[in-house]
Fold:
Amino acid sequence: MSNKIVETIKNSSGEIMQYVLENGTTVDKAQGVEMAKNGQIDGVIIAHSKKGEEYLRTKPDGTEGNNLSAMAKED
Structure:
């Protein structure tokens, strides 16, 4: 069963550290990436940072309101 990300939690530096799924579960970045690889999170792609770290991004659709960074709250 797949979930969608409904909220993200950023650290004080503005980096997304956790993803909140529509079923209420909160997962860290690594767990979210693994879940996406296994088809358990819809609407995202796996991207790589300049440091080579994997993270999630929303699939491009021309709408900024559903971007993960727009769903964020500070930790």
